[in-house]
Amino acid sequence: MTCGYDPDLADLIQIILGRGRNDELRYLSEAPMLLTAAEKDPPDLIILPVMMVVMDGFEACRRLRQSPRLRHIPVLFCSAAHTPEMHQWVTRAGGQGYLHMPFGAHELLNARDALLRGETHLQPV
């Protein structure tokens, strides 16, 4: 699983998914690094924040979808933005899930499990 986040949130996700579920997590702070790492070793799931420094999560997801090697990987978006348009933006970019921050462990686990089963998980806005 690859996660693009600030270090504090990545630590929280590591505690919930890494220690709680024994998932292997890789934290990458910028979208270009995430895309390069995913090409080398494709993860089962990618967790993307909408807002990142070099490129936003939507653009990163669109680029993932252009890669034959990465287009099948489910993407879970996370954002503090809580707008009615968020679900449209997520699906247009190619994402399968959305969580509004802050979110709890139970919400993250439900989203992770749904995406790994091939389902969508769009938290209500």
Q: What Rg is obtained from the alpha carbons, in whole angstroms?
A: 13 Å
Say what the CATH topology is. Answer: Rossmann fold
Q: Give the % helix.
A: 40-55%
Nearest-integer average pLDDT: 87
**Separate helix tally:** 5
Biggest β-sheet: strands ordered side by side in the sheet: 2-1-3-4-5-6
Query: Which segments are poorly predicted (pLDDT under 50) over 5 or more consecutive residues?
Result: none
What percent of residues are in strands? 15-25%
Along the chain, the helix and strand elements come as EHEHEHEHEHE
Taken from the alpha-carbon principal axes, the silhouette is: globular
User: What would you say the CATH architecture is?
Assistant: 3-Layer(aba) Sandwich
Spell out the CATH superfamily: Response regulator
How many beta-strand elements? 6
